[in-house]
Specification:
Elements lengths: L1 H38 L8 E3 L2 E2 L5 H13 L3 E4 L5 E5 L7 E2 L3 H9 L8 H4 L2 E3 L5 E2 L2 H10 L15 E4 L4 E4 L9 H13 L4 E3 L16 H14 L3 E6 L2 E4 L2 H4 L3 E3 L5 E3 L1 H15 L6 E4 L5 E4 L7 E2 L1 H14 L3 E3 L3 E3 L13 E5 L4 E6 L2 E7 L14 E4 L4 E7 L4 E11 L2 E5 L10 H5 L5 E3 L1 H10 L5 E5 L4 H9 L1 H10 L9 H12 L3 H4 L5 H17 L9
Parallel strand pairs: 1-6, 3-10, 11-18, 20-28, 26-27
Antiparallel strand pairs: 1-2, 3-4, 5-7, 8-9, 11-12, 13-14, 15-16, 17-19, 20-21, 21-22, 23-28, 24-25, 25-26
Helix pairs in contact: 2-3, 5-6, 9-10, 14-15, 15-17
């Protein structure tokens, strides 16, 4: 028992001694810490720098004096990759000086807490005055331009991070750090060195290389990417009817945007317009001749008129932009400036009016079935009022309209205009329709109809209903004669042949058309005397047949 008590007493003595030693060491450390707190209230921390100068353990005044001395003997050496000096520049060459006083260093020191001095051992402190070491920017730029580092650079250009397209989506292409040296980078390296009083610049460590200005983590670049892909996610489906659809390829849509220097997305109207024009070339029929098979089975080509599809250039661009900004998928047709009746094989559909000027007869088709037909009288050929050929839509319908021209005013019950004042209407003043009446006694360009026929057609058609107006047979000759009425009159006179009582209508027609000619055109009718002789012969025949009034006989 006595031995155990002795050991226990001995252990207590050891523990007590250890506690005493620890307390002494702790006390010493605490004293050292307090001394450090007091010291570093007026001195810079260990491993501190001010404007690039080591300020460890220094007062503000000592530190400022050291900065001034460093500036007095300061120079910058440009080094190659092996540490060999290439150029050395002096403070005078760059107009270097100090732009601050000791009080700015004191301000830095006053903000330093003495209690944190131990942490500086492990984490160095770098301080900079509110004003840095100054330099003449113009001198720096001039010097940087004069230095030649061409043999120390490579041939890789730096590139900014930018938006690119992979075929379906936009993505951010990372920045590229090149190895080319330029004057701006040299100037920037000089200014950076001066501000921290660094004495060397390695021209091969990247500090003098041209650098990208936009990096891949740029928030504006990310926002720009989101906007672009948001537009790409909007799908515009074109449904033209008759099973005809269009989808916009991603690679085409990707060209519709431009990214400005501020990384804001704008719509490229010209690029969108290229797509609209491409669709126009594919689907526009306005201003194009129409292939047509007449009721009689003749295959003809109807000249272009105002009927047909024409995509509105600016209107469709505006519609596309609105769809993309709307952020939702849409299904629609194109925006049109002019419209046809149908897409597909033809643009006049299967409901239309077929007006054959050569036969002076028209047919009304509805849903592919002929539902009405009638004779008509078209524009007066002899008076240069021939009805214009082409495919036109009925502009509107009106009842009890008054038609006015330079030399006429006519009231009609049913009016269906289709081309520049030409239209279908009743002509109650006419006793007959069809035949060759139009040649010398036609309208001013309209299609004159019997009143009952005009009413029937009026009740069938609607605004937009196609009217197909054409000549059959020798259309070129017909058009030529319309343009050259003197030649036509000459032909009519030549065609009179042997005069009989049945020749009266032909003679009268030739006379009417001749009288309608200008003096210059009349001079071109070289067989005019034949017409005069025919008129005299007809008069004699009528006298012999007792067909003239007594006073004339």
């Amino acid at each position: 028992m006595s031995q155990k008590k002795a050991e226990k007493t001995s252990n207590k003595k050891i523990d007590k001694n250890t506690y005493i030693k620890i307390a002494i060491i702790a006390g010493i450390l605490f004293v050292v810490y307090l001394l450090g707190v007091l010291f570093f209230r007026g001195h810079f921390y260990i491993r501190s720098t001010v404007n690039g100068v080591d300020a460890s353990f220094m007062t503000a005044q000592d530190c400022y004096e050291k900065i001034v001395k460093s500036a007095d003997v300061y120079s910058i050496s440009f080094l190659d990759g092996q540490g060999e000096e290439i150029y050395k520049i002096s403070p005078d060459e760059i107009g270097m000086g100090l732009s601050y006083q000791e009080d700015q260093v004191e301000t830095i020191l006053s903000e330093q807490s003495g209690f944190n001095w131990i942490g500086s051992i492990f984490a160095p402190k770098e301080y900079f005055t509110s004003d840095g070491n100054n330099y003449d920017q113009a001198k720096v730029a001039s010097l940087a331009t004069s230095l030649d580092f061409s043999q120390y650079q490579g041939n890789v250009d730096s590139e900014d991070a930018h938006i690119d397209f992979d075929g379906s989506r936009f993505f951010v292409a990372d920045e590229v750090y090149g190895d080319k040296i330029d004057a701006d980078s040299i100037a920037a390296a000089i200014m950076s060195a001066v501000e921290s009083l660094e004495t060397t610049i390695d021209v091969t460590d990247g500090s003098c290389y041209t650098k990208p200005t936009v990096l891949s983590d740029d928030k504006k670049l990310k926002t720009c990417l989101d906007v672009l892909n948001g537009y790409m996610d909007v799908h515009i489906h074109y449904d033209l009817g008759d099973g005809i659809t269009e989808e916009i390829p991603d690679d085409v849509k990707s060209t519709w945007f431009t990214v400005g220097d501020d990384l804001k997305v704008e719509f490229n109207r010209d690029a969108i317009g290229e797509y609209v024009n491409a669709m126009g070339k594919k689907y526009n029929t306005f201003g194009k001749a129409k292939a047509f098979t007449t009721t009689e089975g003749e295959e003809i080509t109807i000249p272009a008129g105002s009927l047909g599809w024409k995509i509105a250039y600016d209107g469709e661009i505006d519609a596309i932009i609105a769809d993309l900004e709307g952020g939702k998928d849409v299904t629609r047709d194109f925006t049109y400036l002019y419209k046809g009746a149908s897409h597909g094989a033809n643009d006049y559909g299967d409901s239309y009016i077929e007006a054959n000027l050569s036969k002076q007869h028209l047919y009304v088709y509805k849903d592919g079935e002929m539902v009405f037909e009638t004779d008509f009288v078209s524009g007066k050929i002899a008076g240069n009022h021939g009805t214009h050929t082409g495919a036109y839509p009925i502009a509107y319908k009106a009842k009890d309209a008054t038609l006015r021209g330079d030399d006429y005013e006519s009231h009609v019950k049913f009016w269906m205009p289709f081309n520049m004042g030409e239209g279908l209407h009743d002509a109650s003043w006419r006793g007959s329709f069809g035949g060759n009446i139009y040649v010398s006694n036609g309208s001013h360009g309209c299609l004159n109809l019997p009143t009952s026929a005009a009413k029937e057609i009026f009740n069938i058609v609607d605004a937009g209903w196609p009217v197909l107006v054409f000549y059959t047979g020798n259309t070129e000759q017909e058009n030529f004669l319309i343009a050259n009425p003197d030649i036509k009159v000459t032909g009519l006179i030549d065609a009179l042949g042997q005069i009989t009582l049945e020749s009266e209508y032909d003679i009268a027609s030739a006379r009417i058309q001749y009288n309608a000619l200008s003096d210059e055109q009349k001079a071109n009718v070289t067989n005019y005397q034949t017409l005069v002789d025919a008129e005299n012969t007809l008069l004699l025949l009528k006298q012999q047949a007792g067909l003239l009034p007594t006073e004339q006989q």
